[in-house]
Each structure stands twice: as structure tokens, then as C-alpha cells.
Amino acid sequence: MSDYDSPRNARRRGGGPRRGAYGRPQKPALKLQTTTLWYYPSQQYSDQPMGLPGYEGRTPAWVIWNLLERYTREGDLVMDPFCGGGTTIDVARDMKRRGIGYDLRPVREDIFKADARKLPLEDEKADFVFMDPPYSTHIEYSEDPNCIGKLSAFDDDYFEAMEGAFAEADRVLRDRRYFALYVSDSFEKKKGFVPIGARLAEMLRGRFKIVDHISVVRGNRKLEKPAFHKAAAEGNFFLRGFQHLLIFKKETAQGGPKDGRGR
Ligand SMILES: C[S@@+](CC[C@H](N)C(=O)[O-])C[C@H]1O[C@@H](n2cnc3c(N)ncnc32)[C@H](O)[C@@H]1O
What we know:
eight-stranded mixed β-sheet, two-stranded antiparallel ribbon, binds S-adenosylmethionine
């Protein structure tokens, strides 16, 4: 029997994770995702939590596991400049990689305080860069005026700030290694839609070679609430059902995007 628990099967069972003995939630075995539509019915892939439990806006641990499994080796240095509750560095260490994380407001001692646009890391030190940056103003991460979560994606300031973070990621990443960005689009009733994923992908294509574009099914609790679906149908808008996962490779040697011939 396949361990894969499709969204349809989960719905038939009434949603939520599979239940095992004594009704305890059971996580399906973690397997490498092999299509461009990624789904796993739990934030965590093991009973040992990765990242600070309850940290708002945290990244699903299994997404990072899949990336590190494909694009890194044991001992590699994995860097996250928007490290939040530390999911990336915990998964990296769980997989015998070295993890280094920065955040404007570190919540753990093993995360260093820094702005993603000015990192205290030497050039070409990281073997993999992962980032899950703020993409709208709905979460108040900190009071710090440099928090990118204070910038609306309806304004160019947000994209300028992200360009600064991409430039730093490019600087610290080794040649021929990979970078992944996890981000959502934004929709606001009166303002409309901003295709954040598409805009950031185009910006990144100026720096890196694009490898692939994955849609990750969102496990957002809001999506289980009938009232939200009713409002979306009546208001003729869509609830955000997936996150973009954009994967790039740094190629500075001849033929890469930087010499203008790789695109
Ligand atoms: C979506 S959360 C990251 C969640 C994280 N991946 C996790 O699993 O916990 C975005 C993070 O970006 C941080 N942040 C916002 N602006 C920043 C900046 N200019 N430099 C560094 N971190 C920033 C916020 O403090 C927040 O922790």
C-alpha cells in the first residue's frame, strides 16, 4: 500500500492526519516528492519537532527535507537568512548537514541577528540557501523597521527589499550550488492580486539558472473553514491553495545567466 495520503483521501476521512493505534495521528513515511505538485499531510515529518513549535509562518519541515535530500550532501553548509523558528537549521542538522540561520529577530540562541540584505557570512561559503521570506503584512514578526513583513507587496519597496536579500544569497552561495525560495502570492479584497511568485522568479532569473517551479499544497487551517469558501464563492475570488517553491542553480562559469548567454 502506498504511504501517500492524497488530499481527496484525507477529505473522505474527514481531513486531518491518518489515525493509528489509540487514535494517535500517524505520519506517513517520508518519501521524496517526484512531481511538481508536493503534498504531505503534516507540518512535521517526525515526532521530534523541527523549528520552534507555534512559530507563526513557519515552513513545513518536510519541504526543507525534500530540498536537502535532492540538492545537498552530508556536511554541506545550509544557510537560511529568514530563519524564524529555526526549521531549516533543525532539518539540516537532522540530516547531518551543517545549518546556519539569521533573522532580524532571533528567537533562539543558535540563530544569529542579521538583516537578510547584509549578512555576516563570507562570500561563497554556503552550499545551499533556503528562504521563506515575509510576503505580506498579515503577520507582525517584530517591531524592527527593517522587517520586510512591514512592506506591502502592492508596493515596489517590497520587491526592492527582496532584491537586496537575493543579492546577499547570491554572494554567499558557492558556484554550482542551489537556492530555493518558498513564497505565496497575495490577494486583498479591495486591492486585488499580486503575482509575487512570478515577479520574484523573474528577478531571480537575472541571477541564477532556474531549475524548476513546484506548487506546494498549503495545509492552512483556514482552508478547512466553510465560511471562507462561501466568502470566496460569493465574492468571486480564490483562497490561496498553494505556495510557490522556486528552485535555482548558481552558475557563474561561462554559459550561466551572468554572462548573458544562459537564458
Ligand atoms: C516566514 S518567516 C520564516 C519562517 C521560518 N522559515 C520557520 O520555519 O520558522 C519570515 C521571517 O523573516 C524575518 N525577517 C523579516 N525581515 C527580515 C530581514 N530584513 N532580515 C532578516 N529576517 C527578516 C521575520 O522575523 C520572520 O522570522
